Please model this.
Amino acid sequence: MNINTTKIISLLFFIFSAFYLYTAYQIQVFAFDENAPFNARTFPIYLGYAGLFFSGLKLILPDPNTIKVEHKSLEYKKTGILILIAIIYGATILKVGYFLTTSLFLFASYYFLGERRWILMFLLSFPFVAVFMYLLHGILDIYLRDPFLQSIGVMG
Amino acid sequence: MIEGILIGLTTALTFQNILMVMVGCFFGTIIGMLPGLGPMTAIALMIPITYGFDPATGLILMAGVYYGAVFGGSTSSILLNAPGVPGTVATSFDGYPMAQQGKAGKALAIAAWSSFAGGTLSAIYLLFMAPSLSKVSLSFRSPDYFALMILGLTAIAAFSSKGQFLKAMMMVVLGLMLASVGQDSLSDITRFTFNNMNLTDGISFVLVVMATFAMSEALTIILKRNDPTSAAKQVSLTELGSIKINKEERTKMYKTIPRSSVIGFLIGVLPGAGATIASFLAYGMERNVVSDEEKEKFGKGSVNGLSAPETANNAACSGSFVPMLTLGIPGSGTTAVMLGALLGFGVQPGPRLYMTNPEIFWSIIMSMYIGMVILLILNLPLIPYIARILAVPKNYLIPLILFFSVTGIYVMSFNNFDIYLMIGIAVVATFLRLYDFPMPPLILAFVLGGLMEENLRRSLLLSNGSWEFLWDRTLTACILVTTILIVVWHIYKTFKRKN
Model:
């Protein structure tokens, strides 16, 4: 059996399905429902077995279409930085507010992706977010929480 | 039916809704044109904006985005040989050679007219078929629905891509597993929440769509930035040539369009098949029916070879609305996204939609006609300008996609946990995409998960726990036999290819 990344993913999925199945059996159902033809754990149990079946087949059967990924040509560093910025964005958006965090997120993302046209970067962050916010909050009446703008009296 | 058409026209022809179709077509074209971003991403990005509208307007906007994105995908196929969506791969076979011969404008015009004709013809088929189908579907019972969902999920896995059936089935199971998180709909028992209150209501559909499509596509583009085989090419578009189609070319299109539209529509109606198969079949059929002289031109810039897949893929888009509107079962990943959005509006598509919400049912169908007209009016004169969007720098595009994704979740839940969960799912999805695990089956399964469990529950309770319900009714048995035939056909094809 040729071990490649697809097989490793299938193995991980097999383990995940086994864990899912174990958790499905642990679902607490009402006493009167325990022997019913269908209760809250029935469908997840079938899904767990289905996951084991398909990932097991993928593991056992030969893989004619082996996918080869050229890891050297992939931009892991920039992707990682972008994910990190997105996590920081997610962590601060509620506390700081939509406008400032979104604008800073966009500006930082442009920068880390290699952009250096400062005026364009600025226009596509702060004013762009302000217009988008006006569209959502002002015109479409979609509530946007923004403690920062509220603290300086821009938003009611 | 006349009354329904009038209701639909009244709703679709309001100033707001016409504006929405225009906005949808325009943004759909732009998003669909960018390699890597297809109709699903385009619609997913529009979901937060539709929150502020009523269901009919929201759906009209999404339908406009859908058609626009499909046309946009054709543009990048023709100009860059980089299809934005799988449904436009066949378009590049003759569209790109035509563009290389200095006839890019003409190729785009043929694509626009063929899309328009295909979409309009199939909207007419839909107009007549949908009401009668919705009457037939009223006779469907829980076992039939359950079997139909199995058919839909198997079909989308079988048709997803060559030799990836097992991978697609794994994605189907993963989608169903994600859908099972949260409270059980009947007993309110929480499942797979691990005592996390944020998961009690389950994982939001918008979150899963944004993570697996918009966000993971953005991450994939960055990840593959230096990959020479990736479609992320930058071009300079200065010379597109004339967009005029001469009499001889028009004559060829008159013959191609009707037959391709019928194929496209019928394939689109089948659960799981969709625009990709429709366009390939139409291309293959066209090559078989044309003269030997014309056959020689296929792959080198044939008008028939370009017109056939373009007509078929747009016709399939309309066709895929049939199972969604009449049965409440989406036939493709894109209609699954739209179904999820409809459920979010509190509208349950299915046979009763035709009676309970006729304004939504008919306004979607009528807005398709209007969408086609607007797409043509908007895109033909704007082709030279729209084409320049293809040169948009990725440095700006990627952060904007991420921003729209996070905003979508933020306005929905105001919850940090959902944003982290979205990023987590997006990272996993990006990794899975690298190894060709398809995402549309996951989305379709996620949308159908709740309905599937509900119908299985009813069927098993009615049959006292016996699985005989699967063959008790002729209709259920027929659907399951079709499912088995699809699987057998797929296995046969795989073995044939190996030999």
